[in-house]
């Protein structure tokens, strides 16, 4: 019988001498081989929907660095597109979508179970990866959390303060909540199909969770994460779920227990020592090196990496960045980080 993969052991609650390591956005623009494949694809969305090329860019950082996990190459905004929103990318500026500003816009969207035909290429990518990844490398599927995806659908783009989504929440709560509910149901469908295709773990990215305060955080970050996690656990009892309510601050405390998530990923706005005390007490924690160290490198990278590993050494830990690696990162600094963790 094959030995359990290191990432799966940490997610099961095991404290390991050396934590498993992977990196958010590890397949990306900081790697020359990624840039070459993206040029071959033509544009970003063409890359997402080409199973062979999407699998190739997912595999590139595994070949180069030997991470303990690969994360499916896709984008959180494929779900809105599958639901019927228009989606395109503006070079140098990021995604643009048709907007949801009221009931008429919402009424044009498809149902949650109607997403699969559009997303079939993503499931095909997962199938390819489950065959081609090294036997010791875990495969992570993912989706954006309902609140974060809704912020893009309402504004039609990324915004610094998620203002349009907060405005719709205040002015037309019924449409706002209908959108959150639709995205919650669609995300369950999407992640469940990723698992059927071969994903061994799934992660829910709530990149803008931190802009939800007090009761809104409970209702629109925690509750959807709980609903998604519990639905997935009912369908796939042995598949772990990682939740990432970024910049949740004190909201990280108890998030795993409240949602049923097997691991909480934390960003670098909280201290590792604090998280070890308040979050790791409930189980596995993932994080939380500041992504800027992948740009600057040097002794500061080594020292901070060691400090985080030490802080979390008393419980289950997956080493990762506090957010995605940036395009200006130096690939050599990634290797330095890995060598530091593993030494």
Number of strands: 9
Radius of gyration: 19 Å
Distance between the termini: 28 Å
Shape: globular
Unreliable spans: none
What portion of the residues fall into strands of 2 or more residues?
5-15%
Average pLDDT level:
98
Order of helices and strands: HHHHEHEEHHEHHHEHEHEHEHHEH
Determine the fraction of residues in helical runs and give it as a percent range. 40-55%
Q: For the largest sheet, list the strands in their spatial order.
A: 1-4-5-6-7-8-9
**What would you call the structural class?**
alpha/beta
How many strands, what sense, and barrel or not for the largest sheet?
7 strands, parallel
Count helical runs.
16
């Amino acid at each position: 019988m094959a030995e359990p993969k290191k990432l799966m052991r940490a997610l099961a609650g095991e404290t390991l001498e050396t934590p498993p390591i992977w990196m958010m956005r590890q397949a990306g623009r900081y790697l020359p081989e990624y840039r070459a494949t993206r040029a071959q694809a033509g544009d970003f969305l063409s890359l997402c929907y080409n199973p062979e090329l999407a699998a190739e860019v997912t595999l590139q950082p595994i070949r180069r660095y030997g991470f303990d996990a690969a994360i499916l190459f896709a984008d959180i905004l494929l779900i809105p597109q599958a639901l019927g929103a228009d989606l395109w990318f503006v070079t140098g500026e990021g995604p643009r979508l048709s907007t949801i500003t009221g009931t008429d816009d919402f009424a044009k969207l498809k149902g949650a179970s109607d997403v699969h035909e559009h997303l079939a290429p993503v499931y095909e990518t997962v199938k390819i990866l489950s065959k081609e990844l090294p036997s010791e490398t875990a495969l992570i599927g993912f989706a954006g959390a309902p609140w974060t995806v809704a912020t893009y659908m309402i504004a039609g783009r990324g915004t610094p303060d998620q203002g349009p989504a907060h405005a719709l929440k205040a002015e037309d709560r019924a449409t706002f909540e209908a959108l959150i509910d639709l995205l919650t149901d669609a995300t369950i469908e999407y992640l469940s199909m990723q698992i059927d295709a071969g994903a061994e773990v799934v992660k829910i990215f709530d990149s803008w969770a931190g802009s939800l305060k007090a009761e809104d955080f409970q209702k629109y970050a925690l509750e959807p994460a709980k609903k998604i996690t519990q639905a997935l656990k009912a369908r796939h009892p042995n598949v772990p779920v990682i939740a990432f309510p970024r910049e949740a601050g004190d909201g990280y405390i108890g998030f795993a227990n409240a949602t049923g998530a097997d691991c909480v990923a934390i960003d670098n706005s909280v201290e590792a020592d604090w998280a070890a005390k308040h979050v790791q007490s409930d189980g596995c924690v993932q994080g939380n090196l500041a992504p800027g160290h992948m740009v600057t490198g040097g002794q500061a990278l080594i020292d901070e990496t060691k400090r985080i590993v030490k802080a979390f050494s008393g419980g289950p830990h997956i080493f990762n960045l506090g957010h995605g690696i940036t395009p200006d990162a130096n690939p050599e600094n990634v290797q330095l980080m890995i060598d530091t963790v593993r030494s």
